[in-house]
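Sanity check

After download, print the first record. It should look like this:
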Amino acid sequence: MHLKNTSIKGILSLILITYLSGYIATFAFAPYNIWPLAIISPFLMLTLWQKYPKHKCLTSCIYGMGYFSAGAWVFYSIYEHANVGFFTSVFVTALFVCTLSLGFIIVYLIPTKTPGNENIKNLIYFPIAWAAAEYFRTLSSLAYPWLFLAYSQTTGPIMATTPIIGVYGTSILLTFISASLYLLLKRRKAQQLLLLALPLSFIIYANLTQNNISSGKSINTLLIQNNTNEQEKWRTNRLEKLIKTYQKIINKNIHNNTLVILPESAIPYIPITSKQNYNNILMTINNSNSAAIIGSFTNENNKIYNSAIGVGKLEGIIKKHRLVAFGETTPEIPMLTEIAHALDFPMSNLSRSDEKINLMSFQNKKIATFICYEIAFPDEVITRAKNADLIVVISDNVWFGSSSASAQHRQITQFYANMLQKPALFVNNSGLTSIINNKGEILEELPQLKQGVINYNLSF
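Expected structure tokens:
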């Protein structure tokens, strides 16, 4: 079908239908967790390709705009915290989503331009292209691996396959099922059911053979969700009050031999050791034979790093390796660079650490610590956590208000807890702080935008 022969109404209908085909994938992810939509949405993309074969590239990009609208919660951080107007916030968010949608050109190019018959193009090239596009997003300047299709499966039966096939394998499995459904409905032949029988058999096998073995280890944990607002957090004259709040919470809730975890940038001061109330926290930690991971900043050679600082029976500093584009660093992209400078977020000129990141250790348990969205990078997670006993993620999503950001962030943590068969502690300043077992199941959680603590003896 040629667009030049189509009415304006027909063109608008095409754009809307294509956009909505991508947008419904939003509801596959947390907090909605309608996991089958992760199969239906790619199926609709293939159907649109069939209906508009001359415009696969265009429909792929429009589909991508709808798909990445699930991550449009960046609007909240821009509008609420960057001191710019509503329309500027909408423009920047739209530009962000459109830039990400270009990644779907990879999904279009590989099956379209590579030789092969219809079966090979749909069942092999299409799933591989989808996974390749996801991998590419971990490499780009924008580095946005947030909405990998696999991450949507934390509440469905496909979750059992992730320890076997990993994150990209799970995305390939989902899109293979989508392509199988597409060919079944297109050809309406009974033998096409065999294509569905293969992945369904594998999913059933994975669920029947899930590993439920416990290591016999346990750890006392104290997770602190202070729900600190930005005015209190970044104003120097309120810093002592903030540290004192954490001191009171720790004093009231700590037990002996406890791992205490504070969120990302919980105490945003350099050096935090110069603050008396911080030293009081250290005294409490040491006197109870405990350890703490504290989100703060470190300064080395005139470079500032977003860091996780280990104190007490757990010492060491983890400096953030993966920085958030426009929030912590400014990628050199024309026009986007100027916009990022205009937004002027606090601590938006941080340095990336390229040091080897070592595991922390407490009571002979090795801990892999991730700061914010580092947990979304598959290679980063596998490399850092493969020899760990426990995964810890510290974050501060207060920038994103009551949006789905924290739910999606925790969902990613759940995914890797299950994939690596390791328990995880997700500690976020603004909510959904959680204890997650090695199957990705939530054992205990705190509500969003509320102050609270979790005192939990985690066995694994």
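If your output differs, re-run the checksum step. Summary of this record's structure: The longest strand covers residues 291-300.
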